[in-house]
Every structure is written in C-alpha cells, then in structure tokens.
Amino acid sequence: MIDLQIRTARAGEAATVLSFWKAAAEGTSITDDMDGVTRLIERDPEALILAEYEGRLVGSVIAGYDGWRCSLYRLAVLPSHRRRGIASALLEAAERRFLAVGGRRGDAMVLEANERARRAWAAAGYQREDHWRRWVKPFA
Length: 140
Ligand SMILES: CC(C)(COP(=O)(O)OP(=O)(O)OC[C@H]1O[C@@H](n2cnc3c(N)ncnc32)[C@H](O)[C@@H]1OP(=O)(O)O)[C@@H](O)C(=O)NCCC(=O)NCCS
What we know:
Elements: E1 5-8, H1 14-24, H2 34-43, E2 48-53, E3 56-65, E4 70-77, H3 86-100, E5 106-108, H4 115-123
Parallel strand pairs: 4-5
Antiparallel strand pairs: 1-2, 2-3, 3-4
Helix pairs in contact: 1-2
C-alpha cells in the first residue's frame, strides 16, 4: 500500500476534480459540471472523498448520505495508479463516513459491462442484486 493522503474535498476544488474525472472516471453524468460539483461540496462537505499521492489527486469517491441511504458515486483512480489499493482505501474511508453518521448499507450503481469496477466493488464486500432496474427522469 502506497503512502496516500485521504481527505475530503475543499471549497474551490470543483475544477480540479472535474479534470481528474476526465482522466480517471468511467463516463460522465448529468452533474459533471462546475455547478454540480460546487453544490455537492457546499451541501455536504464530507461527501466528496479524495486520495492524494505526492501532492497529486489520484482517486475519488462520493459517499453521499441523505439521512436515509448511503449512496456511492464516482469511484475513480488515475490509470497510472491503479492496482495499488487506492480504490480500496477510498471505499474504507467512505464506509467510515457512513458508519459515523449511522448509515446501514452502501449502494452503488455499477455498469454491467465494467468488469474492473465489478471486481473492485466485490473486493470491497459489495454484492450485485439482480432484481432491480434503474428508473430515471431528467428534470431539465
Ligand atoms: C475500478 C477502479 C476504481 C479500481 O481502482 P484501483 O485503485 O485500481 O483498485 P484497487 O487497487 O483498490 O483494487 C482492489 C481490488 O479490486 C479488484 N480489482 C481492481 N481492479 C481490477 C482489475 N483491473 N482486474 C481485476 N481485479 C481488479 C482486485 O480484487 C483488487 O485487489 P488486488 O489488487 O489485491 O487483487 C479503477 O480501475 C478505475 O478508476 N476504473 C475507471 C473508473 C471506474 O470504472 N470506476 C467505477 C465506477 S462504478
């Protein structure tokens, strides 16, 4: 395991996080813009968890808690830094956060075709459930 610093995002880091996701994340979502990330950091400063190595942003996960459920998004590690335990360390930090606020179970959306991601979630103890489909409605 490398010498990582795990910390929550600071106000003003939205642009850095967005450019990190361009290099590291799988796809994009409707909230991947300055307004979306800034709102996340303002609304729940503990939710966006980052991993730094030698002063460089190398990993992220969003650990969102709304008082009801624990939702995980944007697990991503820089391609050059993969398979060194960074995702595992981020998911451990997310779990600590959830336990501290009384969360009971973590939920993540994982693309079926994303084999690497499936393995990483499974390694962290997450189990795939077959009996759901995602239902969505964009508001704008
Ligand atoms: C998925 C991802 C976050 C994993 O990050 P990582 O830091 O490389 O993962 P870790 O090193 O913590 O791996 C933990 C365990 O997950 C499994 N795993 C991770 N990547 C794997 C791969 N490419 N192949 C097989 N197993 C893998 C292994 O069991 C691994 O433990 P091991 O290295 O001791 O065998 C990274 O590959 C990534 O950013 N992918 C693109 C973005 C993405 O798909 N995110 C998930 C969205 S749901």
